[in-house]
Amino acid sequence: MQDEYRTVAREGVHETEINRSRFLCALAPAATEREAQEFIARVRKEHPTATHNCYAYVIGADASVQKASDDGEPGGTAGVPMLQMLLRRDMRYAVAVVTRYYGGVKLGAGGLIRAYGGAVGEALDALGTRTRRRFRLATVTVDHQRAGKLQNDLRTAGREVRDVRYGDTVTIEIGLPEADVEGFRAWLADATAGSAGFEPGGEAYGDA
C-alpha cells in the first residue's frame, strides 16, 4: 500500500469559456470505480443537451484503475488529456467530467487537448486537494478510572481518536502511523502504569 495519496478536497464544478465554447469541469472524490461511474451518470443527466460529456477517473492509491472517454470528440483529444492532468497532479480516488457546450468555433486537436486538460487543472486549483495518509488502526482498552485522562493525553499528543465505546472497560480506537506503533505501545504502558490493553488492527487512510 502507498503511504499517502492526494485526492479532490470536495465535489464541485468550475467553468471556463474558450472560443465561445463552455467547458464545465465537475470533480469529485470517488472511493470505488462504481462511485466514479455513478457520478459520471449523474453529471450526464444534469446536462442532457450538452455537446459532449467527457470523463476520466483514477481509482486506487497506486492508480491501479484508470479510465477515460472522449464521448464523441476526436480520439485522444479529451479523456486522455483529462486523465493525464489527474495523474500529473498525483490525484487518486478522483473523477472528472468535462461537459462541453459547443460555441460555434472549432478548436482543432491541439486546442481541444489544451481545453480539456486545462479545464481539469483549473478545477483542481479552484476546488483544492487534500492528502490522505495511511494509518494503522489500533484498539486501546482501559478501565473507567483512567479513561478520561488517557483520552486527554492522546489528544494532547496529537493522536487521532476515532471512536470511544463504554462497556465493562472503555475501548478507544485510534489511528497511528505505521512507524509509531512500537513507540506508542511503550508510551501507553508508561501512561497507564501497564494497565491498558493494546491491539493493533488493520490499515486505513485518514487526512494527513
From TrEMBL:
The UniProt entry, under InterPro entries, shows: EFG_III/V (IPR035647), Impact (IPR023582), Impact_N (IPR001498), Impact_N_sf (IPR036956), Impact_YigZ-like (IPR015796), Ribosomal_Su5_D2-typ_SF (IPR020568), UPF0029_Impact_C (IPR015269), UPF0029_Impact_CS (IPR020569)
Please list the residue ranges annotated as the Impact N-terminal domain. 20-124
Q: Which residues form the UPF0029 domain?
A: 140-194
Query: What Gene3D superfamilies does the record point to?
Result: 3.30.70.240, Impact, N-terminal domain (3.30.230.30)
Domain of life according to the entry: Bacteria
The residues forming a coiled coil are: none
In terms of PROSITE patterns, this protein maps to:
UPF0029
User: What cellular component GO annotations does this protein have?
Assistant: cytoplasm
Q: Name one Pfam family in it.
A: Impact_N
| GO BP, sorted A to Z | regulation of translational initiation
**Family that this chain belongs to:** Belongs to the IMPACT family.
* Protein name, entry field: YigZ family protein
